[in-house]
TrEMBL record:
Pathway note: Cell wall biogenesis; peptidoglycan biosynthesis
L,D-TPase catalytic domain sequence ranges: 1-166
Descriptive protein name: L,D-TPase catalytic domain-containing protein
GO MF term (any one): transferase activity
Source organism superkingdom: Bacteria
Source organism: Sphingobium yanoikuyae ATCC 51230
BP GO terms, sorted: cell wall organization; peptidoglycan biosynthetic process; regulation of cell shape
Lineage: Bacteria, Pseudomonadati, Pseudomonadota, Alphaproteobacteria, Sphingomonadales
Keyword Cell wall biogenesis/degradation: yes
UniProt keyword annotations, A-Z: Cell shape, Cell wall biogenesis/degradation, Peptidoglycan synthesis
Active site residues of this protein: H132, C142
Length: 166
């Protein structure tokens, strides 16, 4: 098991010899127990790296050791605490609030799913905490890095690795 370290105080992400700038939530970081849906806070803690979602035609899968799949039209993620599928991938349209995984920007060309509030999900305690591409501004609670940095890091990640946000 290897650890991706996110230092929220310095805005740096470190993995082995790699050291890169990263962005966190617009409200900063908070204890995982205090995380609430929509608060813009990045939860502190150790989060298993579950899998990768990729936008077709935007990223090569060469060298990716993590489980991965392509993002398709209609792919979403439930962010509605009233949804029985809260904090899970879902198909759109859906009668509950969801986040589309096909965004108009490039942030979700690569989505690394972090195991925050997923075993099992507790409604309202935060959903869709991802590691994705930077939009040049704070995230809604995720961790983000520039495309070139993500593409250097992604092939180095393996099943069992974790992201520590501290």
């Amino acid at each position: 098991m290897s650890v991706v370290h996110v230092d929220v105080a310095t805005g740096r992400l470190r993995f082995g010899d790699l050291d890169m700038a990263c962005t966190i939530g617009r409200s900063g970081a908070c204890a995982a127990a205090d995380k609430r849906e929509g608060d813009g806070c990045t939860p502190l803690g150790n989060w298993p790296i579950r899998a990768v979602l990729l936008r077709p035609g935007k990223v090569s899968t060469t060298g990716i050791a993590l489980p991965w799949r392509w993002i398709h039209a209609g792919d979403g993620w439930s962010d509605d605490p009233a949804d029985p599928a809260y904090n899970r991938p879902v198909r759109l349209p859906r009668p509950f609030s969801t986040e589309s995984l096909q965004r108009s920007d490039e942030a979700y060309d690569v989505i690394v799913i972090l195991g925050h509030n997923d075993a099992p999900p507790v409604p309202g305690m935060g959903s869709a905490i991802f590691f994705h591409l930077s939009e040049g501004r704070p995230t809604a609670g995720c961790v983000a890095v520039d495309r070139d940095d993500m593409l250097r890091l992604l092939p180095l990640l393996s099943p069992g690795d974790v992201m520590t946000i501290a």
